[in-house]
Write the structure tokens for this entry.
Amino acid sequence: MAGGRVCLSLNHMSTGGVSRMVNKLRFAQVGLGPMGVRLCKLALEKEGIEIVGATERANLGKDVGEVIGLGKKLGVTLTDDLNAALAAEPDVVLHSTLSSLELAKEQLATIIKAKVDIVSTCEEISYPWQTQPEIAKELDTLAQENNVTVLGTGVNPGFCMDTFPIVMTGVCQKVEKIRVARVQDATCRRLPFQEKIGAGCTPEEFEERKASGKLRHVGLRESSDMIAGAMGWKINDYRETIAPIIAKKEISNEYLTVKPGQAVGVEQIAISMMNGKEIIRMEFQAYLGAPESYDTVYIMGVPNMEVTVKGGIQGDIATASMAVNAMPRVINATPGLLTMKDIAPVHPYAGDWSKLI
Amino acid sequence: MAGGRVCLSLNHMSTGGVSRMVNKLRFAQVGLGPMGVRLCKLALEKEGIEIVGATERANLGKDVGEVIGLGKKLGVTLTDDLNAALAAEPDVVLHSTLSSLELAKEQLATIIKAKVDIVSTCEEISYPWQTQPEIAKELDTLAQENNVTVLGTGVNPGFCMDTFPIVMTGVCQKVEKIRVARVQDATCRRLPFQEKIGAGCTPEEFEERKASGKLRHVGLRESSDMIAGAMGWKINDYRETIAPIIAKKEISNEYLTVKPGQAVGVEQIAISMMNGKEIIRMEFQAYLGAPESYDTVYIMGVPNMEVTVKGGIQGDIATASMAVNAMPRVINATPGLLTMKDIAPVHPYAGDWSKLI
């Protein structure tokens, strides 16, 4: 019975001595770009959830319901003033503005100081303890002082290359190495996604885009660090490579025609070493014409395991789902900067969400 | 910020103001049958874990190290007096005696009153809130009063047909139905397992064994209830069937020869209905000559998902792993009777386990 207590059952919370009169789970949406719109719409589909504030740089003064295409007003006006959006005292913020923690730090600090819990899709906050320990410590301390919880989540980082493999190791006696492969056929994805992965680029253009940082999927390091943190591994050496996957024959879809020798997409590989031994390997591939999409976790240990999500986990749907589904967990969690390995399973709920907090 | 707080990061615990001087994680083994021996041996392989007490009805007065085949003494003598085994004040008990919660209740209450956390492989305590609500409430209250945590876990119930599907729903916007299939080729399993599944029985013998309760896998109801609890579903009707899988041609292995018309194993199906609609379906098959073993979760929702563990999750290894791996989570958890859906991911750890508590 030593140490802090980790987890309180949601059973307990709904029956325990909760004094607050809960009407609805109240959230504010910080960031209404394409992902923010998804988060917001999904949250508003749930019973017992209401929006009380929203920020974005565009559409200022307009009603959120109209901006996200609900065809009706919600009584919440878009602002670029974060404190104004927090004035209605939401239970939680859905934060979806930036991938960079350095850039998002001030926004997060402002929300924490307003004593509001945060679910963020900022990739770099999913596990910043190794990559940006000072900011992590600063936000963790600030969150504890203000009695709020901050969680970074999404599909990747947040689930398919970190939480999912960690959960699967539960049935292993020991683990020697973890390999995760996320392979996506980009044929049916939106044109911006196809451009993001370099489809149609010559090898030279691909290298230029890579150099400008536009091709990089953010989060492999954070996912690797989360796995290592759970397993008790120390990563001594980490390497990440980004390379084009080159078309051997012409391939075309409704948006593009890729000629032989041009890129059909990208392969990003992250290798984590401990004491000269490869312990984590992440393979992220997104390209036109992949024979199939899938997510596979390979665990080398006792026993070995191979677990596959057939057809893969859909990126945009999954990120929105994970962030919205995480809201009750985060509202009820202990204060501090937590990561997905620290909280109980996140899942959707068919009933009234206000009963979960 | 309303309600109780759910989860404290293990990061926090290892750095936070823990006042106790931790030398090792100290456990007592209650029950040293075949599964208890596995639990005990696995726990003792870990760095930073020691055994301080053990009970069983056999081998009384012998040293645990010798009884479990370590070939050396551990200084812990087997007793049939539970309080004697708890006298050394373990941090946690690994409880592995019975499948029936009704029968295990008094043991559990005794351990709780001694203020010791419990990880139990008792199938019926994995999610007793619907099946045995009075005992669940009684143990939950007792655990809270004594500031201890009780968790039932294992492979099934505990992981493959409950926690695993619940975790996978995290990336879903909504879920309409969950189907879980656990198929095991029994050819390489021990003779007692082959007998347990009715291999070699005539259909009449199979029915006799079924009537005596010897063929039933315990836990499908608990797993179904855990999923329903997470999803916010109310099960109005639950049905479980057990039937032989009949050999079409002769099949033999090192233990048995099964003739056509005899049983090669068992199929147990559990169907949960809500408002006239099937919402959870569990298919458990164990038989000689299954083309392959696998665990597959099918989620019908947005999006649909199909997730397969190739070769299936090994039963005995997985149960021991899950129970041992759960010890730090349970030691650090909030008091009460918790279930796997309430605690953060359980996983092995390569370092010193005393640092986790």
